[in-house]
Design goal:
Blueprint: E1 2-6, H1 12-22, E2 30-36, H2 42-49, E3 54-56, H3 65-78, E4 83-86, H4 95-100, E5 105-109, H5 121-128, E6 132-139, E7 149-156, H6 163-188
Parallel strand pairs: 1-2, 1-4, 2-3, 4-5
Antiparallel strand pairs: 5-6, 6-7
Helix pairs in contact: 1-6
This protein binds 5-O-phosphono-beta-D-ribofuranosylamine.
Length: 189
């Protein structure tokens, strides 16, 4: 199965998936493309160093979100992508991609959805004072962090924790959870 990772930033989840592929833990997965909406996103350099095809698509270069997504779709079709894996992609998926890849777009979110959707899942949960948070992998629908949940893993927040320690713990579980979900999804075919 050919996957495209969409990312806007650092790309540690990309690295975790790439490492799992390199270690032979995801035999059904071909890491076929990394797409970013930010030219300077470190994930692009990381993928290029791994010899994974990369593409930057500038959302500002199109007259509308639809035109932007039509171009993205063309790129995905050229690479024969089967599954879109969002990993820190800071853009809402629109109707063109949703229609073409219905049920074939997944996302990882750093909170226990449906609690704390949106851009600041870790900080919002920490500020609220919840004692348990975690990561969620879900299918993407037309809401924000609302699609059907595939898997979740929890983190306990103790009195000693800070936003920094929770963030670190979050990344650790994400890096385990995302490859595990991909293994399960791709083994099912
Ligand atoms: C992750 O925490 C993910 O849950 C969120 O964005 C972050 C991406 O981190 N959607 P990275 O770029 O994979 O390091």
């Amino acid at each position: 199965m050919k996957i495209a990772i969409f990312a806007s930033g650092t790309g540690t989840n990309y690295q975790a998936i790439a490492a799992a592929v390199a270690a032979g833990q995801l035999p059904q997965v071909e890491l076929a493309l990394v797409l970013s909406d930010r030219p300077q996103a470190p994930v692009l350099a990381k993928a290029a160093a791994d010899h994974v095809p990369t593409v930057f698509v500038d959302p500002k270069a199109y007259g509308s979100k639809m035109a932007f997504e039509e171009h993205v779709l063309e790129i995905l079709q050229n690479h024969q992508i089967d599954l879109i894996v969002l990993a820190g992609y800071m853009r809402i998926i629109g109707q063109i991609l949703l229609a073409a890849y219905r049920g074939k777009i997944i996302n990882i979110h750093p909170s226990l959805l449906p609690s704390f959707p949106g851009k600041n899942g870790i900080a919002d949960a920490f500020a609220y004072g919840v004692k348990i948070t975690g990561a969620t992998v879900h299918y993407v629908d037309d809401g924000i962090d609302t699609g059907p949940i595939i898997a979740q893993e929890t983190i306990r927040i103790t009195p000693d924790d800070t936003l920094a320690t929770i963030t670190e713990k979050m990344h650790q579980i994400e890096h385990r959870l995302y490859p595990a979900v991909l293994a399960e999804l791709t083994e099912k075919g």
